[in-house]
Amino acid sequence: MKNRNPWAWVPTLYFAEGVPYVAVMTISLIMYKRLGLSNTDITLYTSWLYLPWVIKPLWSPFVDMMKSKRWWIITMQLLIGAALAGVGFTIPGPWWLQGSLCFFWLMAFSSATHDIAADGFYMLGLDQHEQAYFVGIRSTFYRIATIFSSGLLVGLAGALQVLTRNVRYSWSLVFYLMAGLFIALWLYHSWALPKPSEDGDKQQRSVQGIILEFKQTVVTFFQKPQVWAGICFMLFYRMPEGLLAKVSALFLVDLGSNGGLGLSDGEYGLVQGTVGVIGLTLGGILGGIVASRDGLKRWLWPMVMAITLPDLVYVYLSYALPSSLLVINVCVFIEQFGYGFGFSAYMLYLIYYSQGEHKTSHYALCTAFMALSMMIPGLFAGALQESVGYQAFFLIVVAACSLTYVVTWFLKIDPEFGKKKEEEVIE
Question: What is this structure's pTM?
């Protein structure tokens, strides 16, 4: 029965969705940097962790067919907690790299599966009015999870390093703390999540039927108008950000002798994990407001400029190497605000491309291309940076922004899209 107040589980569910993603994609970068890995190795290893989100559409039908979404949510939260504890356990040991990567992989696959189940459960556990009402709440608590993880937890790791004088044990304690948090979330959601009748009514579908349905989804996806222009846009619009995202984090904490800004973990938590996330959130909110008022087509090019031009702040930072934390915060805020505003165009286009039959499945395929667009540049970003230095690397990122303009030029978008209120909430 849907007898549980949504406030009792929606905020915590999306907080639980955000924490492991940030742990895999952001916290791992800083941790491996502090443990002495090269930028080449860090970006290569952590970029492969995008793979579960790239191939997520392949197993999402099986999540829908096997067990209830509530069961998947609770089980994945337990696995995420175990993976976090595994990372904490292996860091002080001799096989810390192999062990931690193994548990990060478990965490990544569990988190991607949790995303599938949570987003589906959201639509089953709430009626249409509640879905619309809580869409902003879920986004807010996802952002809170981001600030908590990349801000407070990274800062805590830095404080523990000062107290313990031991980098490995400090990070180990942080991951044990996160594991404890997830065990608590697992216990809480075992009680708090409602049990919608629709979630228990499983349609019996054969594996062959699911495969045939998936093939039909893929075929119709590639039969859409402007398919190649759309795919190029999905892959290359964010490519400069794919190069920048991991290296910019490493640049902020790298030693001045290596060309970095030399921020402590606490300072990084403030700059990127707090101020940066606030800028990203505000930019995204503004992007949604103006697009809903005037349509995506009207704001497409301003959004393109917003997601590309602020990359110049890293060129400035790499040459000026300012010591003022205020200056660094302002620069990161500008870049992240522009990214949040410009990213609105990308997400809206994914919804636009997914319209029509099989829109939910097509949107899942679009998000796979989105993850791939971040994964591929990240694989070699660290090696490129180490070969040319931070200053030249950030200039290359700015030059790569030309691809964003090229792929946007070929798009054809209905001027009315985005102006009308959407009836469905698509994830």
Answer: 0.85
